[in-house]
Amino acid sequence: MKKTVLAVLILLSAFNVSAKEPFKVKNIVAFHPVAETIYFPEIGLESEVEIGQTIVSKAKQLVHPALEVGSDLSFKVESGFFSNTWSGTATIKKGKFKRYFSNEEGVFYRADSATFTFAAGTMDQEGGVFVPNDANQPSLPWTFSKAVVYFGDAPVVTTPTSIKTFEADSFVKELVYGGVSQGTVAISYREFSDKTARPAFTQELKYDLSEGDVIGFRGARFKIIKAGNVSLRYVVLKPLD
């Protein structure tokens, strides 16, 4: 995908947006999702989990602005605007389209799946929805072929949304309830990467409740209200570092 974006950035330059005519884009700004830290549960809120469930967790996730499109999009691409462009049909599958890049004309959102069908067959092709900066102009489907961006004529109805994904190099940190025996609470500390627990980042912990009802580990503090063989009731005082 990065190579494709670079190809687009290098090859595309200037023209004004039209609902019918292809155009080349200038002054492209690639979009970089915002990273945010997610803590669970809310501090100060009484919570309850069963054995094997997460007591507290911390993770970094990427937030991608997106558009929800409820139906497939399809439009004709005609040759003639540029001599090396094929005629065919662009088809863009419905779903959530991530923000891709923008320029002075508006914002491009990219679908996960799009194709271009022409005389020689069907091939994968980038496509999505273009949202003009001018609120009086409709959002339009787009695709590009041989460095030229093409637009369909039919306005697209979209719903703003977001797509949240975990950073590839970010661990999900969590404390998991393991039960209680003779006043001693068992808790597991785990770090995940790509949804896989690494043994080097798993640690078993024991806490004697006779020494107090506040438990701490790696910056986290939570007060035990009731620990049983089925569930744990508690209040988080501080999140994990």
Structure overview:
The chain is mainly beta and 241 residues long. It is built from 1 helix and 20 strands. The chain folds into 2 domains: 2-31 and 64-164, no CATH class; 41-58 and 171-238, no CATH class. The protein has one helix at 2-11, and strands spanning 29-30, 34-40, 46-50, 54-69, 73-77, 88-92, 95-103, 106-110, 114-118, 121-124, 127-132, 140-145, 148-151, 159-166, 172-181, 184-193, 196-208, 214-217, 220-227, 231-238. The strands form 3 sheets. Strands 1, 2, 4, 7, 8, 11, 12, 13, 14, 15, 16 and 17 form a 12-stranded antiparallel beta sheet that branches. A hairpin with a 7-residue loop joins strand 11 (127-132) and strand 12 (140-145).
Note the beta-strand portion: over 45%
The assigned structural class equals mainly beta
Largest sheet: 12 strands, antiparallel
Distance between the termini: 34 Å
Average pLDDT figure: 83
User: Which term fits the overall shape?
Assistant: elongated
Question: How many strands?
Answer: 20
Number of domains: 2
Number of helices: 1
Cα-atom radius of gyration: 26 Å
- Strand and helix order: HEEEEEEEEEEEEEEEEEEEE
Helical amount among residues, as a percent range?
A: under 10%
Give a short synopsis of this structure.
The chain is mainly beta and 241 residues long. It has one helix at 2-11; strands at 29-30, 34-40, 46-50, 54-69, 73-77, 88-92, 95-103, 106-110, 114-118, 121-124, 127-132, 140-145, 148-151, 159-166, 172-181, 184-193, 196-208, 214-217, 220-227, 231-238.
